[in-house]
């Protein structure tokens, strides 16, 4: 973990590259890498605040600020008009958490501890919630293909309506989930540490993250043109990695300690946060930024999400995990990654 904080040294490089108009790939690389430790520090500060305020407020903080880094990055991307990048990052975050994080957790946890067990009822509920979010995302996408351009506003209205329903469902999920988890966490988090230090850390990292996110978003189009990669590919793989590093590390670390229950809660829970909270919030925020974002995804994204949810659900059925199941999830992620890389720009 401490080596990750060394990437903070790249913040001056990112600032210099932006203001001195260095090549776009330097600006993009430096800003991306410097965001990684900021996202990690933000995650740690959120955890400390959660311990201080107790399990009830702590659960809310972890749920709402868990994906704050990615939300900030996406807001500045919308400001730049990079809507396809934002939608790809939503897809990439869900895929990354389900396949890459969960896969790495099962693989490393299995190699370290053999067969690990978890509550298959909770895992099943998370899987069913993911299936519901897939339906919610799919309906506007299929609807957009069923209407002509004269009814394009209907697609925006449907996206807004679906986004509202998803947010309501997310908070209903929290109401159902937090009391049970608070009962399990109350003994471990009965006393919290000083609140000032994590609060100051959170404020500073959010300010720096906002500024670096704007730099990152401004360098995307030059990088796409200069390096030949697509905006879609950057959104699928690079942006989710940058924004979710804290949760990725947390999920894998929990698995290495043999706590597969916590690891699955992090990987699958983060996917639910992205689908049910971050994506709908971006739909509403985009209205104020002048670049309306709709929940319309291409067919390949929907197929990839469906495959990920299906495979993860099948693996969760028996309440046990092993290293081979982790390898299977990672294999699916690599196959999809190759396909997304070779997919031509639309």
Give the secondary structure arrangement, pairings included.
Elements (H helix, E strand, L loop, with lengths): L1 H4 L4 H10 L4 H30 L1 H11 L2 H12 L3 H31 L2 E2 L2 H27 L5 H34 L10 H23 L1 H8 L3 H13 L1 H12 L3 H30 L9 H18 L3 E2 L1 H20 L4
Antiparallel strand pairs: 1-2
Radius of gyration: 20 Å
Mean pLDDT: 83
Beta strand count: 2
Largest beta-sheet details: 2 strands, antiparallel
User: Helicity, in percent?
Assistant: over 70%
Distance between the termini: 39 Å
Number of helices: 15
Question: What is the name of the CATH superfamily?
Answer: NCX, central ion-binding region
**Largest sheet strand order:** 1-2
CATH class: Mainly Alpha
Helix-strand makeup class: mainly alpha
CATH architecture: Up-down Bundle
The low-confidence parts are 185-190
Shape category? globular
- Summarize the helix and strand pattern as letters: HHHHHHEHHHHHHHHEH
**Strand fraction:** under 5%
And the CATH topology? A middle domain of Talin 1
Count of discrete structural domains: 1
Description:
This protein has 346 residues and is mostly helical. The protein has one domain (2-342): Up-down Bundle (A middle domain of Talin 1), CATH 1.20.1420. 82% of the residues lie in helices and 1% in strands. It has a two-stranded antiparallel sheet. Helix 3 (24-53) runs parallel beside helix 11 and helix 12 packs antiparallel against helix 13 (260-289). The longest helix has 34 residues, at 152-185.
